[in-house]
Amino acid sequence: MTSPGRQVAGFDSATAMLRVLARFLDGRDAPLLGILPGPLEAPMSVLLGAANRLPRRVAERAFAASGWAEAVAPGRTGEVRSDALAEWIVSHYPRRRYPAAFIGSADGAMIHLAAAVGAPWLPQTVLIPVRRRGGHPDDPAGSLRASRRAGQDLADAGPDLVLHHMHDPNQDRLMIAGMSYFRVKFRRLPAAYREFLRECLAPDATLVVPDCGLRWPTTRVGERHLFQHGAFGGIGAAEFHEGGDRVAAFLARDGSPFRAWRAPPPDGESPEAEWGFDPALLDDLGEFRTHRLAFPEPQALSAAVADLYRDWYRRRGVPDARLFASCFLLMEPWWTLRTGSVPYWLAFNTDPANRRLLEYLDGAAPYDEIRLTLFSNGVRALGQAPIPAWRDVLARARTLGSFTGVDARAYPRDFASFVRMHRDLAAARPLYPMPDPMDLGFALDFLARHPST
């Protein structure tokens, strides 16, 4: 049977956030996002920097192959077990008493909040990539047909899971050319989660439930099997389903034989596959003292958490004028705190994410330094913010505005950015002592009073 560590995608938002937070709680930073040993950072930087200079199609195939290598064979999806997944997740964390814990939606600002209070996070959703023969990225209905049996096998094997087959031919088109994104959500509290919380939560500790309310049109395939065409990012659900001149031009530019996406018609709405919270899980949390941290969409917490850190720094006598804007899975809680950086999390490299950050800077006290990293997904996708838009962010700094680990000439095919981000942030000076954990009650009260939440 395939081990859970080989079933779950290493390149996904939830697993990256899990790794960097777990390493932080273990007193460690996260070179290479914790995927590979730290000593490989320098050679990987050279290797991936060379990949940036490959011809476009060669680089794209290499990028897609890196994800395909992690994918599960379609005939093995029936081996997925929810308890085994949960055991693998909790194995990342040091076993000790924590003042709080988080369980629910993935969110970068929430990860910085959890780091500040010294608490672990248990994801509700993880990504299981599954190899697929047949189907085309721009033919979602065909891709569903090609992977339907694998999805049924997974759903039948995991009665505690809901399968959201997410198909995003805009931002994920390179990866989904040969695989299907099966995101599974725990609708019941798995035994390993319950045991971990009972053992590791301090008496009277609070279990915080990050509840992202984002929903998306879906097509029901089975009782616990949903298909989602498109995903949160640069364009909305309507454009994914209705198409138009912009979609047609995008597909023509990419050499696709299609001029619109052929998706099965939606018959309802569900929690968005990657970010949305399935409230069915709440029914199993009754034995714990919980606090529901509700927010409408990814990045909605980012301004409030940034201001929380600024307030915390001022109370500690640390300057609060250095901003680090992280992006998607490119996060480093350890060096964010060691460099005295205020974290602002960008959900992705899109126009809406860029606008939200600029709006935050418009309303915030000026920053002397702004550092910014960008996730490269290998595609010039619709709704993607170009480098000049990101330079507008850096121009808001009073003394230093700089990219962190980003090759602006290669973006969005800058495959070395996830290596260089850690190196560049760690080089910032001066450094500050690692603080004692923030009081959770203070943090939650601050967020409740913040105008953005």
Strand order of the largest sheet: 3-5-4-8-7-9
The main pleated sheet reads as: 6 strands, mixed
Mean pLDDT: 94
Give the assembly state of these chains. single chain
Query: If helices are DSSP runs of H or I spanning 4 or more residues, what is the number of helices?
Result: 16
Give a structural overview.
With 453 residues, this protein is α/β, with parallel strands linked by helices. It folds into 2 domains: 4-295, no CATH class; 302-449, no CATH class. Helix content is 36%, strand content 19%. The chain has helices at residues 4-7, 13-25, 41-51, 56-68, 82-90, 108-117, 140-157, 191-200, 237-242, 245-253, 302-316, 333-338, 351-363, 387-394, 417-426, 440-449, and strands at 98-104, 121-123, 125-131, 161-167, 179-186, 201-212, 215-222, 225-229, 268-271, 290-295, 322-327, 342-346, 369-372, 400-403. The strands form 3 sheets. A 6-stranded mixed beta sheet has the order 3-5-4-8-7-9. α2 runs parallel beside α6 (108-117), α6 runs parallel beside α11 (302-316) and α13 runs parallel beside α14 (387-394). The longest helix is centred in the first third of the chain and has 18 residues, at 140-157. The model has no long low-confidence stretch (mean pLDDT 94).
